[in-house]
């Protein structure tokens, strides 16, 4: 029996081709009227390929509308776009792509620390706009070595960021729901205490009810006027308006943001600020990593349909 796969947003090209050679693939983003297309094919669909995107919300309503759905193969390590409760209730197998993107995401996080503290994006603009020649040297940046990085979420990605921070001579501390036996960094069970203690507050946690709006005006005030916030997790971990107020009011020194509350829409207030470096959710966005992530999606689907097994279940 040929399996019918619903793809809501593209993964890497070669892996889409591979899927098309083995299955019937419905590319929802190419449909002029996705609602009615779904209505026509919904009973045939046995698998979904999803990816972290505002275009790819695997809601409870969608899951319930597909009576023969067996597997959701997700391309990403964060899966907050999938209604996991409904998937579990309906007995749907869900897979994701952990580990393979850890280094790339940690690199972007480290790059943001470097670009914000050393004012590299500002300096690039200073040169391009001729201000260097007109005004002379730029205001000074800040040294990384000796600064304290407080990491929220000491999972795989948090640990990879910590290793990089140490190479730059930074001291690492962390906050999370539990102390981790595999690391020796100082653990804080109280986010407020850690925010007060650190210079760079690094968000590397997953998004859930527990981390929704974890970073608000109170945390930012404790981070303080020399503090910097870096977010490579999910936009909704931060109350974006509180962050804008803190940056505009000099409550914190700067921010490096790869993720936003309402992607791909970024508030113009953030775009106007010099002390902020913005990225378009680029954590795993390399040719190599996106290929490996996409291949893992394909491998999970194939193994499931051939042997009722998967490689990386959630
Ligand atoms: C996305 C991510 O998968 O894995 C995650 O949780 O946020 C990213 O790696 C990627 O941006 C594709 O949308």
Overview of the structural elements:
This protein has 314 residues and is α/β, with parallel strands linked by helices. It has two domains: 4-98 and 288-307, NAD(P)-binding Rossmann-like Domain (Rossmann fold, 3-Layer(aba) Sandwich), CATH 3.40.50.720; 102-278, NAD(P)-binding Rossmann-like Domain (Rossmann fold). 39% of the residues lie in helices and 16% in strands. It has helices spanning 13-22, 34-41, 60-65, 84-89, 102-117, 120-128, 131-135, 156-167, 191-197, 217-223, 240-248, 268-272, 287-307; strands at residues 4-7, 24-27, 45-51, 71-75, 93-95, 148-152, 171-175, 186-188, 200-203, 228-231, 254-257, 276-278. A seven-stranded parallel sheet has the order 8-7-6-9-10-11-12. Helix 4 (84-89) links the parallel strand 4 (71-75) and strand 5.
Cross-sheet strand order for the largest sheet: 8-7-6-9-10-11-12
Low-confidence stretches: none
Largest sheet: 7 strands, parallel
**Total number of domains:** 2
Q: Nearest-angstrom radius of gyration?
A: 21 Å
Fraction of residues in H or I helices: 25-40%
CA-based shape? elongated
Mean pLDDT: 97
Q: Approximately what portion of the residues adopt beta-strand conformation?
A: 15-25%
CATH superfamily of the largest domain: NAD(P)-binding Rossmann-like Domain
Tell me the total number of β-strands: 12
What is the annotated CATH architecture of the largest domain? 3-Layer(aba) Sandwich
Bound molecules: 2-keto-D-gluconic acid
């Amino acid at each position: 029996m040929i399996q019918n796969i619903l793809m809501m947003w593209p993964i890497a090209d070669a892996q889409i081709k591979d899927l098309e050679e083995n299955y019937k693939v419905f590319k929802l983003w190419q449909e002029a009227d996705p609602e009615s297309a779904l209505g026509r094919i919904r009973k045939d669909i046995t698998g979904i390929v999803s990816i972290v995107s505002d275009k790819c919300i695997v809601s409870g309503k969608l899951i319930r509308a597909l009576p023969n759905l067996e597997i959701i193969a997700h391309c990403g390590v964060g899966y907050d776009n999938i209604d996991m409760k409904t998937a579990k209730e309906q007995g749907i197998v869900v897979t994701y792509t952990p580990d393979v993107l850890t280094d790339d995401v940690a690199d972007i996080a480290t790059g943001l620390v470097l670009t914000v503290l050393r004012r590299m994006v500002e300096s690039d603009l200073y040169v391009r706009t001729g201000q260097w020649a007109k005004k002379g040297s730029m205001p000074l940046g800040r040294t990384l070595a000796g600064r304290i990085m407080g990491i929220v979420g000491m999972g795989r990605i948090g640990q990879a960021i910590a290793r990089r921070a140490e190479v730059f001579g930074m001291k690492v501390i962390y906050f999370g729901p539990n102390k981790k036996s595999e690391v020796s960094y100082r653990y804080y069970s109280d986010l407020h205490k850690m925010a007060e203690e650190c210079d760079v507050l690094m968000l590397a946690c997953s998004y859930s009810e527990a981390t929704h709006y974890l970073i608000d005006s109170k945390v930012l005030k404790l981070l303080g006027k020399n503090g910097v916030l870096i977010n490579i997790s999910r936009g909704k971990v931060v109350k974006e308006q509180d962050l804008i107020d803190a940056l505009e009011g000099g409550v914190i020194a700067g921010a490096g943001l790869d993720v936003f509350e309402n992607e791909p829409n970024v508030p113009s207030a953030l775009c106007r600020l010099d002390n902020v470096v913005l990225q378009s959710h680029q954590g795993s966005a390399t040719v190599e990593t996106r290929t490996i992530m996409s291949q893992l999606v394909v491998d999970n689907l194939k193994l499931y349909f051939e042997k009722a097994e998967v490689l990386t279940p959630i």
